[in-house]
Amino acid sequence: MGYGMNELERSAGNGAFRQHRNPIDQRALYDRFGALAYGIILQILPQSILAQKALMEVFSADNLPAFANSPVNPAIAVIRIARAKALELKDKAKEREDARPEPFSVNNSYSPEYIFDLSFRQGYSFETISEQSGLSRPELVKAIRDFIHVFRRS
Amino acid sequence: MEIRQYIDSGVLEAYLLGLASEEEQHEVQQMKVLYPEVSSALNELEVVIEAYCVENSVPPPPGTWELIQARIPGQEVRKREPETNDKKDAEPKTAKSDYVEVEVSDSFIRVHKYWRVAFMVVFILSKIFLIAGLYYYFKADSQQQEIERLKSTIQQQQVTR
To answer: In this structure, what are the phi and psi dihedrals at residue A54, rounded to the nearest 5 degrees?
Structure first.
């Protein structure tokens, strides 16, 4: 296990997984980022059974190449894949319930946190948010930055 | 566009969170290679975003890894490879089994897909036998009643003679 963990440590190379695609790395990846991924998934998909299914798909063998070939560090790759899987399962669940995608309701002003919630957690594209909010794409992207930097300062 | 302005635009955050368009992704990757300031800003943001996600992390339900492990190809029951003559000479024979024992602690079992057909056939046959059984039961019952009726008719006729 220790060997696997060392492989995961942040390094300038950012490609620690590229040469090691075996179950040991998969376990190390899960041990280090499982809670992180599950936290992201639960923000998007609060149903625990579906969330666990999404988590299993994130760390399935099929996704190892995606981690290995990612241009960003493993944590960021996990965040992206966890979000994508959670949104995918959320969409499938909605399809099964025959629910049509509804336009989001505005219950407050378009704060950076609300825009982050709409785009990252709820999966709305910047185009959709832009259409409904009247804000331009650069303004929305800037709002994401502002949200991250509010967290950074806190 | 000035590099500082580009970094402050928010496109790097969107890129790292997987919110950027394909065009923006390519642009960020090119800018990262061309400008060390962009590369440095990305590294800093990776730390911030990771910290944000770590702060919101939740321990996965117990047993999740075992379920993932069960899906890993080659981690389940594997058939033992046929031993070569050299190996037979080198190692004494120990186990005769064709399968390697692997500990599995999840609550699921796996069955071959042909069992589905077998279960369906058994289910359909059981329904057929149930219907046939009920049919013959009621038929026999009505025949019994008919016999009783005929007997009583004959007795009545004998009495009247």
So the answer is: -60, -40
Q: Which residues of chain A make contact with B67, given a CB cutoff of 8 A?
A: 52, 56
Whether B46 and B89 map to the same domain: the answer is: no
Check residue B102 and give its pLDDT.
52
- How many independent structural domains does chain B possess? 3
pTM over cut 0.95: no
Fold type of domain A2-96: Rna Polymerase Sigma Factor; Chain: A (1.10.1740)
- Spatial separation of the C-alpha atoms in residues A53 and B105, rounded to whole Å: 18
Q: What average pLDDT does chain B have?
A: 82
Helices assigned H by DSSP within chain A: 2-8, 23-44, 48-58, 64-68, 74-96, 112-116, 126-133, 137-153
**Model ipTM value:** 0.76
In this complex, the residue of A36, A59, A73 whose CB is nearest that of residue B57 is: A36
Number of CB atoms found within 10 A of residue B72's CB: 16
- Determine whether the interchain pair A30/B68 forms a contact, defined as Cβ–Cβ distance below 8 Å: yes
| Percent residues over pLDDT 90 in chain B | 58
**Quick one: pLDDT at residue A47?**
85
